[in-house]
Every structure is written in structure tokens, then in C-alpha cells.
Automatic annotation (TrEMBL):
InterPro entries: ArsR-like_HTH, Carb_Metab_HTH_regulators, DeoR-like_C, DeoR_HTH, NagB/RpiA_transferase-like, Tscrpt_reg_HTH_DeoR_CS, Tscrpt_reg_HTH_GntR, WH-like_DNA-bd_sf. It comes from the Bacteria. Gene3D superfamilies: 3.40.50.1360, Winged helix-like DNA-binding domain superfamily/Winged helix DNA-binding domain. Keywords: DNA-binding, Transcription, Transcription regulation. This is DeoR/GlpR transcriptional regulator. The keyword Transcription applies. GO terms for molecular function: DNA binding; DNA-binding transcription factor activity. PANTHER family: AGA OPERON TRANSCRIPTIONAL REPRESSOR-RELATED, HTH-TYPE TRANSCRIPTIONAL REGULATOR SRLR-RELATED. PROSITE patterns: HTH_DEOR_1, HTH_DEOR_2. Pfam families: DeoRC, HTH_DeoR. Residues 3-58 form the HTH deoR-type domain.
Length: 254
């Protein structure tokens, strides 16, 4: 098998299933672990994945929205269902970019809410729901990821307030820092944090530790983390020390 074809298959496997071990990729592709390790080094040099102990995780920051939207859907739906149950009718909700926020938007139909977003897919999902007051933030269009960014988006957020912010992430470091792979989105996320009374991080299991070169915020800026699997011990300790509530698929970690 040509190296280019292996690289395509490795990235497809990581994007579909989350982090994968070298041994698993070796078995899937029918090549030696040594070959896989060399492939992972090359793909990391190209900025397409991050190597972790024993394997790798794909960098999703700049993937087209439609591609990311097909990854780990049941996990995102479990997170979204819990998040939706936290919101009371009549409240205002700020939804970040990303596919988990989109899954949350799908849970809000029929509710009496105000939804504020820079996520065009969220806007399209809720535009015809007459019970929802929908506020679309202005800004520069990122076509591939269906979001609005830039100083106009940030200026809009400085004039708004929301009861809840539901924030997405590329990864959460063991120290509890929330990271993102796309630098242009970081100022918008920070402005959202300032505009929200309560900040809820939506993060499936692949986001621990996940990846990302740009820090969005520290654990002290979060109120709740909603995930679909137990959080590793180091990250959980950092979050709890900062007073963050960690919720796992309908139950609170204790």
C-alpha cells in the first residue's frame, strides 16, 4: 500500500473513531507497527494529527463542518440531551461553533428561548422555530466551518448577555486549560465567555486530552463540564480544584 493511501486511511480512522492505538491501526491497515509510527510522525509534521502515548488523535480544527458532523454522533447527542435539560424556558442561550453545539440546537425545538450564535448551522436548524428568538451574530464567514468570526462578532458579543454559554473545544489539558486548534476562533470564544452568566463546556471523550495550540481559557472560567465518559484523574482534579462541576452522561462525578 502506498504511503499516501495509508495516510488517508489513518486520518479517516481517527476522525471516525477518535484516538487510536498504533497496534489497532497496524491491524486495520495490515502493516507493521513500525510503519504506522513513521506514518504518524509524518502526519504530525504536516499538522494533521497529534501523537499521544501509544497512538494518535486527528486534528479536527479545520475539517469541513459536514465531515466533523458525522463523527461520534451518539456521544454528542448524549451530551446535548443533558445540556438541554439544564436550560429553563424563558432563558437566553449562547451557542458556540462546532458540531456538539449543533446537536444541542436540535434538542431545543419547541422551547421558549432566546438563542444567540455565530454558528450558521445552528441558525439554519432553528430559523423556522417560531418559539425561539434567534440572534445571529455578525462577522466574517468561515465557509468550511460554517461560522462567523472577527472583530464584528466580538463587538456584537460585548453588547449582549446570556444566561448560559455552551462552549466547544478541541481539547482539555490535564491542568484544565481549554484549547482550540483554530486561532481565529479564540477571540470569539473568549468574548462569549464574558457574555455568559454560566459557562458549560461540551466535551466528548476524545477531547481529553484532545489537542489544540491556542488556549481559550482556564478551568476557573468554567462552571460545568458535560462529557460522555469519565474524565482522567489529573484533569478531573484540576477542574474540581477550580470549582467546576463535572457531569458524565446524566450523572455527576463524585
Amino acid at each position: 500500500m502506498l504511503a499516501e493511501r495509508r495516510h488517508q486511511l489513518i486520518l479517516r480512522a481517527l476522525r471516525a473513531g477518535g484516538p487510536a492505538a498504533v497496534t489497532d491501526l497496524s491491524e486495520q491497515l495490515g502493516v507493521s507497527p513500525a510503519t504506522i509510527r513513521r506514518d504518524l510522525v509524518k502526519l504530525e509534521e504536516d499538522g494533521l494529527l497529534t501523537r499521544v502515548h501509544g497512538g494518535a488523535v486527528a486534528d479536527e480544527g479545520d475539517q469541513p463542518f459536514a465531515e466533523v458532523a458525522e463523527v461520534r454522533v451518539p456521544e454528542k447527542d448524549a451530551i446535548a440531551a443533558h445540556a438541554a435539560a439544564m436550560i429553563e424556558d424563558g432563558q437566553s442561550v449562547l451557542l458556540d461553533i462546532g458540531t456538539t453545539a449543533f446537536r444541542l440546537a436540535r434538542q431545543l425545538h419547541g422551547r421558549r428561548l432566546t438563542v444567540i450564535t455565530s454558528n450558521l448551522v445552528v441558525y439554519e436548524e432553528l430559523a423556522d422555530d417560531e418559539g425561539i428568538e434567534l440572534v445571529l451574530l455578525g462577522g466574517m464567514l468561515r465557509r468550511e466551518y460554517r461560522s462567523l468570526v472577527g472583530f464584528l462578532t466580538e463587538d456584537n458579543l460585548r453588547q449582549l448577555h446570556a444566561d448560559w454559554l455552551f462552549l466547544g473545544t478541541s481539547g482539555v489539558r490535564p491542568g484544565g486549560q481549554v484549547m482550540d486548534t483554530t486561532v481565529v476562533e479564540v477571540p470569539v470564544k473568549r468574548a462569549m465567555i464574558k457574555a455568559g452568566d454560566r459557562v458549560v463546556l461540551l466535551a466528548d471523550s476524545a477531547k481529553f486530552p484532545g489537542h489544540g495550540m491556542a488556549k481559550v481559557c482556564g478551568p476557573e472560567d468554567l462552571d460545568v463540564v458535560v462529557t460522555n465518559a469519565p474524565v482522567d484523574t489529573a484533569t478531573r482534579a484540576s477542574l474540581e480544584e477550580a470549582g467546576v462541576e463535572v457531569v458524565v452522561a446524566g450523572k455527576v462525578q463524585t
